[in-house]
Design goal:
By secondary structure, the chain is of the alpha+beta class. Helices cover 22% and strands 29% of the residues.
């Protein structure tokens, strides 16, 4: 089993404004009225494992943030085509860096509208440079899709023993990402195992120790949905951050 990732950000929001406290200009005084624009992006990150519909907040990695600065003639905003030529590449660099591709037409439209609006404010009369800020924020979700293929356990063991594979999984991630499940042959007794999430799996053998699971026993399930004896997978992940079956990668230090 292998996996591929796609990224999306369905909740991206933005605001365009003229700051009260103007930053120090990074450019010389222009001959014509110009706009000095700061565009900042801040996004949180999540993982969505499609196989078991599990969402995980990547709090350890922290939010992704980036900034771009540019200055251009105010007249650029009077021509939509020119404005898009100037602003689209800058927004594109920000969004590609965060692993998500979005349409940024609404953002550019708001920059144009606000830039032309503040030109006529009494407080801006006589200014040679109009300071403008655009802030973007949201959540980037990495959707991990699984594709079935022939994978041999021996190959996984060999690769995990290689120099590049012998990196242990992060202990806090193991505790957070592995789920306690109960091995069942039939229906679940809802009152049993109160400290176990109401989740059943039907598996036969643990591929690490090759011993049979006992019906009703507690096992640990990785985000890729492969299930192992608790002691077996915890010991394994202390040596390698790869799933022994599909090579799914757990976070490392």
């Amino acid at each position: 089993m292998a996996f591929v990732s796609t990224y999306c950000c369905d909740d991206l929001q933005h605001v365009v404004y003229q700051p009260r406290l103007e930053p120090v200009s990074r450019y010389p005084t222009p001959r014509f009225v110009q706009v000095e624009l700061t565009i900042s992006l801040r996004v949180d990150r999540k993982c969505h494992y499609s196989l078991n519909d599990q969402f995980i907040d990547l709090e350890d990695e922290g939010p992704f943030s980036s900034e771009e600065f540019l200055r251009f003639d105010l007249d650029v905003l009077r021509d939509h085509h020119r404005a898009y030529q100037v602003l689209a590449p800058v927004l594109g660099r920000l969004l590609v860096a965060s692993n998500v591709f979005l349409t940024f037409d609404p953002i550019i439209d708001d920059i144009i509208r606000h830039g032309l609006k503040i030109e006529n404010w009494a407080s801006n009369r006589g200014r040679e440079v109009l300071i403008l800020c655009a802030e973007l924020w949201g959540t980037v979700v990495e959707h991990i899709e699984y594709q079935e293929e022939a994978v041999l356990l021996g190959r996984a063991l060999e690769e995990s023993a290689s120099e590049s594979g012998m990196v242990p999984a992060k202990e806090s991630s193991v505790k957070r990402m592995l789920k306690r499940v109960r091995v069942e042959a039939g229906e679940c007794d809802q009152k049993a195992g109160q400290n176990i999430k109401k989740r059943l799996v039907k598996v036969e053998d643990c591929v690490i120790c090759l011993e049979e699971f006992k019906v009703g026993s507690v096992a640990l399930q990785m985000p890729c949905s492969h299930t192992f004896h608790g002691d077996c997978i915890e010991k394994w992940l202390k040596q390698s951050h790869y799933c022994p079956v599909c090579r799914f990668e757990m976070p490392t230090e």
